[in-house]
């Protein structure tokens, strides 16, 4: 295996690792939820602007408070 192919393999592995870390951080921070919400909003209401992140979080918190779900932990 040449040095170039080893470097390319290493770079590919590092890229996959960083993408995985980025995905994980977006999922636990809630950023991914907001991005999915914006995509759905644009599909369903193309003429209306998507809500701001702050408005989305406010609505989400209100929904959680008014519709509690029992959980084991």
What does this entry look like structurally?
- This protein is mainly alpha-helical and about 70 residues long.
- It has helices at about 5-30, 30-45, 55-65.
- It is built from 3 helices and no strands.
- The mean pLDDT is about 90.
List keywords for this structure.
73 residues, mainly alpha, 75% helix, elongated
Describe the SSE topology:
Layout (H helix, E strand, L loop, with lengths): L2 H27 L1 H14 L8 H14 L7
The helix-and-strand class reads: mainly alpha
How many strands in all? 0
Instruction: Give the H and E element order.
Output: HHH
Coarse morphology: elongated
Helicity level: over 70%
- Poorly predicted regions are none
- Please outline the major beta sheet: none
How far from one another are the termini?
A: 51 Å
Beta fraction: under 5%
Mean pLDDT: 91
Q: How many helices in DSSP terms?
A: 3
Radius of gyration, rounded? Answer: 20 Å
Give a brief rundown of this model.
This protein has 73 residues and is mainly α. The protein has helices at 3-29, 31-44, 53-66. The termini are far apart.
């Amino acid at each position: 295996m040449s040095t170039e192919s080893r470097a390319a393999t290493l770079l590919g592995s590092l890229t996959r690792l960083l993408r995985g870390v980025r995905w994980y951080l977006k999922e636990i921070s809630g950023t991914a939820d907001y991005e999915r919400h914006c995509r759905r909003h644009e599909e369903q209401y193309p003429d209306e602007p998507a809500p701001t992140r702050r408005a989305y979080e406010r609505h989400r918190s209100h929904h959680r408070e008014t519709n509690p779900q029992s959980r084991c932990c």
